[in-house]
């Protein structure tokens, strides 16, 4: 057990105090198990804004100078910096929560997983939608078999902007959809195929269509992501043999279950008709108590440090998403389907992580 686990209340640094990092600071300030919040940002204006909004927060320009004041680090900086910052923190004995994506390659992400394993520290990835109460309720119903055999999952994540130059739309947006599908299915896709485009002003793909093959389950996932769409869309549709479900993050009724489907009956059909019938039943919108996903995520990180538990979205989960994103990028560039390549030595760890994550479900609020 590390010294940080013995600390009754944690001291946590947030690296990167922009839009998302400032949300982490806000959430940490409300947690009773957090004794002190430290903000780290090279930009003086960003540090001044944080300390003005949260007077109790100390601010530093560089993480190295903050290490002796903290037990854990949350990284909310551009993706290209995640691995270096997380590795430095782990090597200095600090627990780490890094925002998605965990790294820019599976090889880099694998190094973080190995370092966290070697040092016995908590490594968690910010796949925030896995802490969304509607997504978790959808997973519960899928796991109970309420939807029947899953045929396919379709996800749309569209918006007008925000354009980024450091990553394409896949690494920016599709990371969410990959993590949601992996979470719902308790699986990793075996292969991917992707198509995308760049417009005249874009140096990277701003539109992509992706197919994820979960071959062992016989399930296909479809993802549409775009920075160039007039409507903001955040929707996941799950089609099963018994029922269908739609999770819409922008609606008041975030989850709707449709008792609808297509049935095949060869006994009651004439030779020139297709033996299909359509079932139209009730639409149910279960009451789901909403809690801010980021708050649940950060609290889970703190609880895992305190209890020595494996996070729901641990390093292996983050590595799996990065491996899929890397394969999608390759498919975009080659125009061919690509196998998802996971480091072979980590496969048993990933399977163990699934079991541990399932056992953690009941402990999450």
Write the topology of this structure:
Layout: H1 3-6, E1 10-15, H2 19-29, E2 34-40, H3 44-53, E3 58-60, H4 63-66, E4 72-75, H5 82-91, E5 95-99, H6 106-119, E6 123-126, H7 133-143, E7 150-160, H8 169-185, E8 191-197, E9 207-214, E10 219-226, E11 228-240, E12 244-248, E13 255-264, E14 276-284, H9 293-307, H10 315-334, E15 338-339, H11 347-360
Parallel strand pairs: 1-2, 1-4, 2-3, 4-5, 5-6, 7-10
Antiparallel strand pairs: 7-11, 8-9, 8-15, 9-10, 11-12, 12-13, 13-14
Helix pairs in contact: 2-9, 5-6, 6-10, 7-8, 8-10
General description of the model:
This protein has helices at 3-6, 19-29, 44-53, 63-66, 82-91, 106-119, 133-143, 169-185, 293-307, 315-334, 347-360, and strands spanning 10-15, 34-40, 58-60, 72-75, 95-99, 123-126, 150-160, 191-197, 207-214, 219-226, 228-240, 244-248, 255-264, 276-284, 338-339. It is of the alpha/beta class. Strands 14-13-12-11-7-10-9-8-15 form a 9-stranded mixed β-sheet. A 6-stranded parallel β-sheet has the order 3-2-1-4-5-6, with helices on both faces. A hairpin with a 4-residue loop joins strand 9 (207-214) and strand 10 (219-226). The longest helix is centred in the C-terminal third of the chain and has 20 residues, at 315-334. The chain is globular.
Number of beta-strand segments = 15
Order of strands across the widest beta sheet? 14-13-12-11-7-10-9-8-15
Helix content: 25-40%
Described by strand count, sense and barrel closure, the largest sheet is:
9 strands, mixed
